[in-house]
Amino acid sequence: MEVSFLADSNITKRALSAALKELMESCAFSKISVADICERCDMHRKSFYYHFRDKYDLVNWIYYTEFVTRIQQKEYRAGWDLLEYLCDYFYENRAFYRKTLGIEGQNSFSEYFRDIVVSIISEDLEEIFKEDDAQNFYVDFYADAFVCAIKRWLLDKNCIPSAQFSHLLKKCLLGASDKIVRDFSEEMN
Asked: Is 120:67 a contact under the CB 8 Å cutoff?
C-alpha cells in the first residue's frame, strides 16, 4: 500500500511540474498562479497544496528530483566532473532555469540553489581552511561567486555551451589558485 501511495504521489508531482514547465514556455513565472498550474493538469488546488507549499517549492522539487537525486547516485572522480554535469544540466534546461534564476527573494530557486552549493563546497573548504575562524566567510564568498557566475551565464542571451563555460570556470579557479600558491611560495623564500 505504501509503495502505491508513493507512486501516486510522484505521478501527481510530475504532472504538476510538467504543467509548470509548459506554462513557463509562454508565461513569466510571476504571472503563473497555482490555479493556472492546476488547471493545466486538471487537478484541484487542494492536490497541489498537499504536495507543495507554493510554486517556489515546486520549482525546488523539480531541481531536486531532476538533478540532486541523480548526482547522489553517481560517483565522481573529481569535483570538476560534478561541475561539468551541473553545467550540462542547466544548459539543457536553460529556458526553464533562465526564468527561475531571475526570481529573487525568500523561497526562490536562487536561494535554494545557493544552499545546495554551500553544502557541496563546505566540506572541501573546511578541509582546506581547517582551523581558520573565517571558514563561513570563505564558503559564502565562493558560493556567491559560483551562483552569480551560473546565473550570469544562463541569463546571457548568447549563452555559451556548457562545456565551454565549465572549462572557463575551471581555468579561472585553477589559474587563480596557481598564482596564489606561487606568490605565497615567493613570500616564504
From this structure: no
In angstroms, the first-to-last Cα distance of the chain is: 70
Lowest mean pLDDT among 42-46, 77-81, 128-132: 77-81
Q: Which helix (H) or strand (E) holds 109?
A: helix 109-128
Give the list of residues 6+ apart from residue 185 with CB closer than 8 angstroms, or none.
none
Helix, strand, coil share of the chain (percent; to 5):
80, 0, 20
Cα 140 to Cα 131: distance, rounded to the nearest angstrom: 17
Q: Where are the domains of the chain?
A: 1-52, 74-188
Can you tell me the distance from the alpha carbon of 180 to that of 186, in angstroms, rounded to the nearest whole number? 10
What pTM, to 2 d.p., does this model score? 0.78
CA separation for the pair 97, 2 (Å, rounded):
33
Contacts 24+ apart (CB under 8 A), 172-179: none
Three cell numbers written together for 139:
564558503
Cα-Cα-Cα-Cα torsion 176, 180, 182, 187, nearest 10 degrees, comes to: 160
Q: pLDDT at residue 52 above 50?
A: yes
The values of phi and psi at residue 77, to 5°, are -65, -35
| Fold for the domain defined by 1-52 | Arc Repressor Mutant, subunit A (1.10.10)
